[in-house]
Every structure is written in structure tokens, then in C-alpha cells.
Design goal:
The complex is a heterodimer. Chain A starts with a helix and ends with a helix. By secondary structure, chain A is mostly helical. Chain A has helices at 3-17, 20-43, 52-80, 83-110, 119-140. In chain A, 7% of the residues are buried. The model of chain A has no long low-confidence stretch (mean pLDDT 86). The longest helix of chain A is centred in the middle third of the chain and has 29 residues, at 52-80. By secondary structure, chain B is mainly alpha-helical. In chain B, helix 2 (16-23) packs across helix 3. Chain B is globular and about 25 Å long. The termini of chain B are close together. The mean pLDDT of chain B is 94. Classes of the chains: A mainly alpha, B mainly alpha. The interface between A and B is medium-sized, with 10 and 16 residues.
């Protein structure tokens, strides 16, 4: 067995070992950790920081509620829209999420005098990359 | 996945819009299937097969 095929085999094993259920469970834990860390970093600069737990509970409630509404909305979209357009939108959304996450991380790493991205700016990045993702797949096709 | 949709449609003198109307999808969907930019969902593939009165595997080919 060559070194290249050995590496490929190891890579395949690694890919198989990463289960989506575990990955998305970790994402949930990661998001909670990020919220707590972000709260503790902002509360250092605030004179009267908002208490952590009520804020976390309120935010979790809103997120769970809106995620449910979005789930029902997406199910309705799937029924009413062409499957083709639904797939274009869904694939575009994946591009948007990944682009927004990486834009935020890279923006943080650059740290060359620009202010951190605000919530509105992140929404703008999300919407812009969703639109771009949609058109990329529209031109390239969903099977490429 | 390749398909014979364009040929089958041409044999019946249907435009993409005609076929789209019968399948209740957009013309862009039909165009995307014909140009290989989109593999239809299973329900749509069955609808296409029913419309042409052919088995799915005679319309959609593996390679």
C-alpha cells in the first residue's frame, strides 16, 4: 500500500467517523458557550451588565420559537415551490451560513483598525451570500 | 445522471412550457433537468414517467 492511498483511507475513515448528529450537537453546545463567553466579555465594559441567565433564557426561547416557525415555513415552501427552486434556495442557504461564519472569523482575525461587524452587517453578509449562493447554483447547476 | 427528456419531448412536439404545464412545475425546472443541471426528486421523476407512460429507467439513465 502506498503512502497516498494510506492517507486517503485514513481520510475516508475520519469522514465516516464524523456523524452529522454529533456535529450538530456540538454546534449547539458551541453556540451556548459562545453566548456565555460573549456575555462575559461585554459585561466587563458595561457599567450595569444585563444578568446572564434571564438573557440566555429569553434568547433561547426566541431562537427555539423562530426555528420552529422557520421549520413550518420551509415545509410550506417545499410544498408550494418547485422542488428545483427549493433546492436552489436550500443550497444557497448553506453557502450563506458558511460564508457568514467565516467572514466573521476572518474579520476578527484581521484586526487592522476596522470595528467588529455589527449584527446588521452580519445579516447583510448573510443575505448577500444567500443571494450569491442561489445564483451560483442557478448558473452552475445543482448536480455539478 | 443523463436523461432522454429533451428527445421524448421533441417526439411529441411539446415545448418546455407545455411539458412544464403538464408536470405543474416551472419551465426553468424542465430546462434544468434537460441540461443536466438538476436531478428531479423521486415524486417528479414518477410524474414524468407517468406522463410519458414509460418506466423511469428508460427516461433517466445511470451514466
Amino acid at each position: 500500500m502506498t503512502e497516498g492511498s494510506g492517507r486517503r483511507g485514513l481520510w475516508r475513515k475520519l469522514c465516516k467517523a464524523i456523524k452529522p448528529d454529533w456535529l450538530f450537537g456540538l454546534l449547539l453546545l458551541f453556540s451556548m458557550t459562545l453566548l456565555v463567553l460573549s456575555h462575559s466579555s461585554t459585561s466587563e465594559t458595561d457599567i450595569f451588565p444585563a444578568p446572564l441567565y434571564p438573557k440566555l433564557l429569553f434568547l433561547s426561547g426566541i431562537v427555539i420559537f423562530l426555528a420552529l416557525v422557520a421549520t413550518f415555513g420551509a415545509a410550506l415552501d417545499r410544498r408550494k415551490l418547485d422542488d428545483y427552486y427549493f433546492q436552489l434556495m436550500a443550497n444557497g442557504a448553506i453557502i450563506a451560513v458558511v460564508t457568514t461564519l467565516f467572514t466573521n472569523v476572518i474579520w476578527g482575525l484581521l484586526d487592522d483598525g476596522f470595528a467588529p461587524l455589527s449584527g446588521d452587517e452580519l445579516v447583510a453578509v448573510l443575505m448577500g451570500s444567500w443571494s450569491l449562493g442561489y445564483f451560483f447554483y442557478r448558473l452552475r447547476g445543482l448536480t455539478a | 445522471m443523463k436523461n432522454r427528456l429533451k428527445v421524448l419531448r421533441a417526439e411529441r412536439n411539446w415545448s418546455q412550457a407545455d411539458l412544464a404545464e403538464q408536470l405543474k412545475v416551472s419551465r426553468q425546472s424542465v430546462n434544468a433537468i434537460e441540461t443536466g443541471k438538476y436531478d428531479p426528486s423521486l415524486p417528479l421523476a414518477f410524474k414524468i414517467a407517468d406522463l410519458f407512460a414509460m418506466p423511469i429507467e428508460q427516461i433517466f439513465l445511470r451514466h
